[in-house]
Amino acid sequence: MSFSEAMAKGLLYFLLCFGCAQAVIKECWTLKSKPKDIRSPLCKNPSSKSAILFGNYLNKSTWPITPIGASPNPDQDAHCGIENAPSEEIRGRIVCGQEALPHRFPWMAAIYQDDTFLCGSSIISKDWILTAAHCVEDLQHEIHLRVGAHDLSKPEKTALTVAIKKENVISHPEYNNKNLNNDIALLELLNPLVFNETVRAVCLADARNRERDLVGYKTTVTGWGKTKSDDQSHGGVLNYAMGGKVISNDQCQRHYPEYIYPGSICTDMSDGVGICKGDRGGPLMIPTNSGQYKQIGVVSFGKPSCLSPEPQGFTRITHFLEWIRNTTSL
Q1: Distance of CA 294 to CAs 161, 184, 201, 234, 298, Å?
Q2: Per-residue pLDDT tens for 138-173?
Q3: Spelled out in words, what is the top-level CATH class assigned to the domain 95-328?
C-alpha cells in the first residue's frame, strides 16, 4: 500500500467510524449488563461473578502522541519499542479498532494451543515473551507462539511459529485466578529469536516510571481481538487504538473493588475506547518522546461490552520489574 493510499484509508476509517461509533456507543452505554466471566468461550453464564473481558480498542476520537521523559531500560535492546510507521501523520488516526499497517508493532506475538488462538503477548527480548497468567493456566501440553505475523487467518511469509514447552511457561507464583491479582507470566524460548523488521522487542517501563502513577497519560493497545461488541470472531488481522487515559487505582476500585491492588493499572472509557475478547495478554503502551513505545501494562480484565463506559484493567509492569529481572536476567 502506498503512502497516499494509507492516508486515504485512514481518513476513510475516520469518517465512517466516527459516525457509527457514536451510534453504537449510545446504544451500548444504555445497557445495564452485569460483569461476566468470559474465560468461558462465549460468555454465556450470566450468574458469573467475575468481571473479565479482553479485547480490541474502539475509539471515536484522534489523539496526539503523549511524551514521557524516561529513556528505555539500558538492559534492553536500544532499538526496542520502535514501530514500523510510514509517517507521523498516520499516528493518531485510530478509530473503531483500526487495522494496523502490517508489522507496525513488531513485538506482537500470538499464543496458540493446538490450533486454537489463546491470547496476545509481547516480545521483551530475544529469549522472553510477556503475557497474562490467566492466558496460560491449566495448560495440558506445549503451546506455540507466532511472531512476525499480521493476519492470523492466513499463512504469511514473515510469520514464524515456535514451540514453547509447558515447563518454560512461568506464571507469577502469587497469581490468583479468582481476582486476577499478579496476572502476569513469562514464556522462555528454547532458541533466541532473530530480530528484523517484523520481529523486535518492545521496551518495558522502568523503575523511573514507578515515581509517577501515569494518571492522565494516553495509551495504545494492540491485539487480535474482536472489533465489535456483538462479534464472536477474533484472531484475524492485528488491530490497534489510541486514546484510553490512565486513571487512578482509587477511581478504578470503585468499579472493581475485588480486583484492584497496587499491581493494577486502569484506563478510562470516556472516549469510547474498549477492550474485547481476544486481546487478553497483549500490551498496554505509551509512546516516549524518543519515538519508542514502552509497555506499562498487560491486558487483564474489563466489562463484557467492548463499548462499556466502565474502566478496563491491566497488570502494572512496574510493580513486577524485580520479578521479571530475577526470572529473565534482563
Answers
A1: 25, 17, 10, 25, 12
A2: 898 999 999 998 888 888 888 899 999 999 999 999
A3: mainly beta
